[in-house]
Specification:
There is one protein chain. The protein has helices at about 40-55, 85-95, 150-170, 185-190, 205-220, 250-255, 260-275, 300-310, 315-325, 330-335, 345-355, 370-380, 390-395, 395-400, 415-420, 435-450, 455-460; strands at about 10-15, 15-20, 25, 55-60, 65, 105-110, 130, 135, 145, 175-180, 225-235, 245, 280, 360-365, 385. The protein has about 475 residues and is of the alpha/beta class. It has one domain (about 5-435): Aldolase class I (TIM Barrel), CATH 3.20.20.70. The strands form 4 sheets. Strands 3-4-6-10-11-13-14-15 form an 8-stranded parallel barrel, surrounded by 6 helices. Strand 3 (about 25), helix 1 (about 40-55) and strand 4 (about 55-60) form a beta-alpha-beta unit. Helix 1 (about 40-55) packs parallel to helix 2 and helix 2 (about 85-95) packs across helix 3. The two termini are about 30 Å apart. Residues about 455-465 have low confidence and may be disordered.
Amino acid sequence: MPLEPFKLFEPFKIKNVEFGNRVVRSSIGGRMAYYDGRVSPAWVAFEKRFAAGGVAAIISATISINKDRMSPLEYPSIHSDRFIGPLRDAVREVKTAGTGRVACRYIMQIGDTGGHTHTSLFPQPSDALSASSTFDFLYGYCNRTIAMTEDQIEASIAEFAAAARRVVAIGCDGIEVTASKGYLIQQFLNPATNRRRDQYGGSVDNRFRFLSRVAEAVRKAVGPDFLFGVRLSAKDYNYLPINMRLPPVWNLRHYLIGNTLRETTYYAKRLQELGVDYLHVDSGFGFLNPKGSPGAFPDAGFKTFANTNRYLSGKAQARAIIFNLAPPWFRRRVFGLGWRFAPAANADFAAAIKRAVRIPVIANGGFQNRDVIDGALRADKCDMVAIARPLLANPDLLRQLQRRNAPWRPCTFCSLCCARTAVFPLGCYDVTRFKNSHEMMLDQILRMSSPERPSDVVAEKELPVR
C-alpha cells in the first residue's frame, strides 16, 4: 500500500530539525538506569526498540535536574556534568538504530518532580519541596509539601539552565521542559497547589513566572538555534482522579478545576514570545491521571505502587492500607472515576492552542489507529502526534500501520505500564494481551534482547493469542 495518502508518514520540520514522519514516541521510562543516575545498556536497548520501529523522534523520560530528587529511582539523571559522556554515547547509539531516510531524532525531556516525588531509598525533606505547603493523598509520598523559598526557586531555575547546557553537549536534537504531569512547574501553575502570596503566586501572571523564568534560562543556555519545546497540560481537571487535597482553596473553580484552556492558551502565547519552538499538549494534573493517560483505571498497578512505598511516610502507609482493605469494586468506582478511553483525547485541546499560536503543536493521548492519527493531522488539529503506551505494546507500530489500520495485537490502554514505572522496569503488563503471564514476560525479554524484532512477527507467528 503506498504511503503517500497517509499524512502521518509525511516528513515535517520544526525550526532546523527535520523529522521523517509525524509520530514521536512520547515520554516513557522505567527502572533501567543505575542507582547513581547513569544510563545502562538496558536503557539503551529499550530506547533503540523505538528508533528501529521507525518513529520520527524519541522524547526521553523526564530526566531529573536535581541531585536530591532523583525520582523515580533508577531513572537517568542530568544534574551533573559527569552524566554528559555516558548519555552522549547512549544517545548516539539510539539515534543510529533508526531506519528511515531521516535519522531518528532524540529530544531530551527535563524536569523536577518537586512535591510529587514518587520514591526514595529513605524519606528526605527535599522530596517535599513545592509551590506551597499542602496535603495531597494520592501524589508524592511526603506527609505534606513544603513551600520553596525564593532562594530555592532561584536555585531550581539555575538547575534547569545547567541541565539544558548539558543536553546540547550530549548531542540531542532538542530539549523539552515538562510543565505537565503534576511536576514542579505545574505545581506552580496550578492555583490549587500554588497558594503563594509573593511574586510567584496569586494571579495568572505570577503563577506563570516560574515557568517563564525557566524558559528564558533554558533558551539562553541552549542558544537561539537549538530546538526547544514545552509540554503543557491544557486543563488541570483537579477533580480527577478523586483525591484529598488540603487545605481547600475557597475559589472552588481553582480548587476543583485548576487551570482551564483559557489560562493554558495564555501560557502558550507567552511561551511563544519567550522563544519556545513547539508545544506538546496533554491534560490533567498528576502522574498518572485519567486525562493524561486515557483508558482503564490501573487498579492492580496503583496498588502495587502504594505497597512498595508504604514505608516512606505515615501518609504512604495510610494510602497502602486503604488500597489493601478496600475491595476492588470500591477502588474502581471511587479512585477509578473518570478513567475511560477516548481516541485522540487531547486533539481538540491541541487544536485550540494551535489556533492561538504560530508554532507547531504536538498532541498526546489516545493515538493508536491509523485513521485516528491521520484524522487529527488532516483536520489540522496538530502537527505531530506523541504516542507512548501503544508503542510500548508494539514498538514497530508504524510498520504495522503501513499495512493495516490497527496493530495486530493492540494496546488496551489499561495504563498498568504507567502505574508501575516507579517500581518495575517498563514493559507491557497487560496479561490479557498474551496467553499467560509467562508469555508476557517472554515477550518483554525478546524485545529487550532484539530491538529490531517486529511486534507482528512475535504476535502472529511466535506468540499466538489464545
